Amino acid sequence: MSIIKPHRLGVITGPGTEYLAGKVVKHLRTLYIERYKKLSKNLAERYGMPETEVLKSATFIDDLGSKKIPFGKCPTDYICPNIEIPVKYTRFLNGEVKAEILEPVRDLKLYLIYDVTNSSPIKVAGCEEPVSFSVNDHLMFIFTLCHAARLAGANSMTLVLPTYPYARQHKKSSREALSAAMFGQICESLGVVERVITLDIHCMEIENTFRTVHLENLHASYQILVELKKIADISDPDITIVSPDTGAVGRNKFFAQILHRPLAMLYKERDYSVVTTGAKNTNIKSINLLGSVEGKTVIMADDMLASGGTMLIAMRKLRELGAKKIICIVSLPFFNGNAVEEFDKAHDEGVFDYIIGTNAVWHGDDLLTKKWFIQTDVSELFARVISRLHHGRAISPLLDNRKIAQRLVDDAQNAATGF
To answer: pTM for the full model?
Structure first.
């Protein structure tokens, strides 16, 4: 397999994911162009030949392995081939959906980039006006597309799902489904899904549900730290990391270790006879802090923010306990329902300072224009993982970004102390 051209690579975009997928594809093309330039320069020096001859030799080798007989003149500049595979998505009047692949994909390794949480109106075939799709609608698009790819002879399908569907239904207390496991089992039954790539999955135990499919869990901590450094002094000794609940302790412990700062935890008592219906109506009876935040800059990390009710309660409690600044970092900022309005009001009241979230889930200007919300870009992270997987290279440096995150923090803290 050529290391300069992505042969047998195809990228498919799910409906409503054009923004993220477009940025991923752009990064992929940049990666291949930069790799070729570096390779061409090194080979020219190594073998004492002009770079034009390197391109000619590389093109000759590519043409030998091509399925099509080449015509025309040999190119004089490196051109990254098109890796995007067009798909027609259709929704019928009865609610059924269909995915039709518009180009041959035989023997290709396909990567489907899909934000299954996008509930904004999306234009698809069969609908005169844009339609809002539920998570279940998006999942049916995935299943029909994967089946179409298998019937079309695709080598494999990798699902790039920033949000793992039904991730919060990973355990049961009575007669209920393990929906997180069920999704994985359905993917395996499709016969073409080889891997699932997701971002900061809610529970890593979900990986145990797979028998043949590989689960790769990426982390956005480095990209978030880059943005955090712009709005806060990460060398400040008065920083305290606070876990919003017991389930997020591991995630916040990571940031406490990276920043060399103390870790505190909020413990919530809930009345489970009450159903949480929104940011204002939750089942939390009381909340207590294990640690101290008085006069501190609080950094609180969580994997996802849905209605945001528990997060707002936690931040109000921290303000009452004397926190001077509160920054919340979230990998998957959904802001469901009227969460944007509730957070806007809370910010005006001085409850918190900033929310840092990724662009892994789609948002409109109603959130992106808020002065308290900062978006960090994770598209390059996904692009690098796709490229490494496709060419059989190790992805462990991207799965565990502790070293580069630690280097970023240490450089900032050393610069502040003069070392």
So the answer is: 0.91
